[in-house]
């Protein structure tokens, strides 16, 4: 159902300077207006301000047109193309409400950074940020990392698996800043490592010992690496994470998400690693998918090492803003390409967190873990995907976006939970981080895992589904379709399936 928005016929046409309303007539707004007036190449013509200080009539030779509450009326009356929020101290909840109001009136929205440095240097027009999806969520970004965390990393040998992914690469950047003795970045994709080295060092010669090409499914290779590198802290981010693909290829999910984790935690314990943190997902809390079930099993594998010399724990993520393949990543690409936006269901919602919050949770868990706990960030209320699409589309100037509802796919849920019904929510030393130890692993877990791995090695999807159901409390395999035939993939070019 397409979105419709009122838009004045008097607004600027493509190629003309955009009529711009500045919200906030303080120092930041005044400097910004002057900068825009002096620099026509920005393509923004300031026409006036909004400010709640009724004593202000004119600022920077521009009129103060009204108060913040009059935003919608003034956007329409003045045919405003762009609204710039120039109040860096505005609380996130108020900012989110203001942005929604402006964007749904048909204007594009930009804002200034909220850090003090921008204000101190005069809030130049070059500081303008496009509104990020994180701003739309209406909650403060949580500073998870405490002052004790850097001391955990400094001078240690650290290994990050899945280092070239969205979470792994941000982990590497932050860990590197804490001055470890060595940072080993492992990925099975050499292109990921090439991009990561370029981002971190500015060079991509691929000749550094810190870059490691390896597959965590190769037990002998994993053991060799731990024996040689002797990492003291391990952050395990490597995984298969796309739910629909794992429903069709469950054996691959087991080989990477479960058996790969087993290889790593066993090697960590055998070679004296001090701490091990697994990155899991909220889909593991009450799993209805292969992704959730394999990640829940990975949590159990890690928890099974509680009490050993290696302190291990897990973290559960919601949908991470900006990560490759996430909902918002796909949304941004669809809107930029002027394609219909696809959502499973009008009522579907998800928990969201920023990449920085996700990495902060991983680092914090490394210091808080004691007995195999799983840690979860308080992400506030889940966000309805349809609402997020509508607001985001309006803010980037796409006012006629078509939304198509595809229906829930096998294994998908309308809503996720952070804890299962049998898990206790335990406070930690951080007010926004909670832990759970969950139910104990079944006594025959090791034997069951052996059967599961053998079934995965045989690529027996049905047997893998049966063993996941036996080993993961509450999980039942969804109905799986056949892999697509050649005719489905290539049309009717071939008379028969391969």
Automatic annotation (TrEMBL):
<dbReference type="Pfam" id="PF02719">
    <property type="entry name" value="Polysacc_synt_2"/>
</dbReference>
<dbReference type="InterPro" id="IPR051203">
    <property type="entry name" value="Polysaccharide_Synthase-Rel"/>
</dbReference>
<dbReference type="InterPro" id="IPR003869">
    <property type="entry name" value="Polysac_CapD-like"/>
</dbReference>
<comment type="similarity">
    <text>Belongs to the polysaccharide synthase family.</text>
</comment>
<protein>
    <submittedName>
        <fullName>FlaA1/EpsC-like NDP-sugar epimerase</fullName>
    </submittedName>
</protein>
<dbReference type="InterPro" id="IPR036291">
    <property type="entry name" value="NAD(P)-bd_dom_sf"/>
</dbReference>
<dbReference type="Pfam" id="PF13727">
    <property type="entry name" value="CoA_binding_3"/>
</dbReference>
<feature type="domain" description="Polysaccharide biosynthesis protein CapD-like">
    <location>
        <begin position="158"/>
        <end position="435"/>
    </location>
</feature>
